Amino acid sequence: MRVQPVTRFENSRERALELFAEQGFGQVSLRKLANHMGVSTGTLYTHVAGKEELLFEALEEHYEQLLILVGRCARSGLTIQPTQRLSRMVGVAYRQCPSRFLLACRERHCLRPGHLTRIDSLRRRVADGLTMSLVGNKADGLAGEVLLNLIEHLPVWLAGEGLPADEQTSLIETLLQGCLQGLRHQPQQ
């Protein structure tokens, strides 16, 4: 099987997301975005319909990746606990693409209604997967939402603290575990 070469646009797409995360989606003009990516505005338009589509695609990939992570953490027969697996995987995912976590936290509201509906649907699937794999049937859908919000925000919050990656992962694990214990002991309504 022949692998397609990575285009200049694909190479610079992460840089575009970093610019959105750094300056805010609404503050980045299309011209500034193209310039930052090292492509012309015309080239940018040959790949995406606009900057909102670029944000949408990044967030869609982000939540699809979280779905995969949740599925992996739920697998039985592995030697470490699901919370530990999830914490480690979230830490790795954050280190690979920190701008996607930041954009998911701060810029999701900038999407058009159709795109926002798709992202909200993916978020619901991630939250439901978290509920089933980590909390179990004792909790309602709110438990998954709480966990998803923690997973989305914890790496962003901790990044500014200057902690080494292994300490960040350990702290994420501790906080998720504490949250899970609290959710598991909530009385049924």
UniProtKB/TrEMBL annotation:
MF terms in GO: DNA-binding transcription factor activity; transcription cis-regulatory region binding
Organism whose genome encodes this protein: Pseudomonas saudiphocaensis
The HTH tetR-type domain, residue ranges: 6-66
Xref: SUPFAM superfamilies: Homeodomain-like (SSF46689)
Top-level division of the source organism's lineage: Bacteria
DNA-binding region: 29-48
Pfam families linked: TetR_N (PF00440)
Annotated protein name in UniProt: TetR family transcriptional regulator
Taxonomic path: Bacteria, Pseudomonadati, Pseudomonadota, Gammaproteobacteria, Pseudomonadales
UniProt cross-references to Gene3D superfamilies, sorted A to Z: Tetracycline Repressor, domain 2
Keyword list, A-Z: DNA-binding, Transcription, Transcription regulation
